[in-house]
Design a protein that fits this description.
By secondary structure, this protein is α+β, with helices and mostly antiparallel strands. It has seven helices and eleven strands. It is globular, with a radius of gyration of 18 Å. Bound molecules: iron/sulfur cluster (SF4) (2 copies).
Length: 201
């Protein structure tokens, strides 16, 4: 399988077939996604979390989008109009598809080839990734910070109490003022708070 960089040229396109929105249950949200999607749907963070997300098991401090039906379709897929209900603010995994990160830190990817067609034009990987409101370049740094935060914190919280875990979830995913502009800054503050709590333990 060829490793692609941001400047690689690849046949990439989308024929809106919905394949990447079924058999899911693995679309992870970082707290910034939670804020942006809640705002986009006009919901409070709590309502969004309750209605649209599930937590990963084993104290992972991670949440995923719920799925519906036998096909495990993403809950945010609009079956009638065959499109994503949150296209403008969709999570990083969905922005990349059909590309899959091989090493996000170094911007290495591979093409899952799930929807490759001869008719697709060759374009640069970075054009594909930034085609949707520049979500990739705008959010890559905060995604990396989230991954590094999880890598640091997860091994240290394997045996914490449910109460403490609940407290961490609330700080990380609910402690936001959606009316304030700098959501990334609020997310960084929340990660720092949890990290300090974990160090204190
Ligand atoms: S990215 Fe590929 S799998 Fe997903 S909807 Fe488009 S064509 Fe289908
Ligand atoms: S968020 Fe949108 S693009 Fe991503 S899996 Fe759900 S419906 Fe598909």
């Amino acid at each position: 399988m060829d490793i692609l960089t941001l400047n690689s040229k690849e046949k990439l396109g989308c024929k809106m077939c919905d394949k990447c929105c079924i058999y899911r249950g693995d679309i992870r949200l970082i707290p910034l996604n939670v804020c942006k999607i809640s705002k986009f749907l006009g919901l409070s963070i709590n309502d969004f979390l309750n209605k649209y997300t599930d937590r990963l098991e084993n104290n992972k401090l991670e949440i995923v989008l719920k799925t519906v039906g036998k096909l495990k379709q993403c809950i945010l897929y609009d079956e009638k109009n065959k499109k994503c209900k949150i296209h403008a603010v969709k999570p990083m995994q969905c922005v990349m598809f059909p590309l899959v990160p091989e090493n996000l830190k170094r911007d290495y990817f591979y093409n899952s080839e799930q929807c490759k067609l001869e008719e697709f034009k060759e374009i640069k990987v970075k054009e594909w990734l930034n085609g949707n409101n520049n979500i990739y370049s705008k959010n890559k740094k905060i995604c990396m910070e989230w991954i590094e935060f999880l890598e640091y914190v997860q091994p240290k919280i394997e045996n914490i109490s449910n109460e403490k875990l609940e407290e961490f979830y609330k700080i990380l995913f609910e402690n936001y003022n959606l009316n304030k502009l700098n959501l990334k800054m609020q997310m960084r503050k929340n990660m720092k708070q949890v990290k300090q709590e974990v160090i204190k333990k």
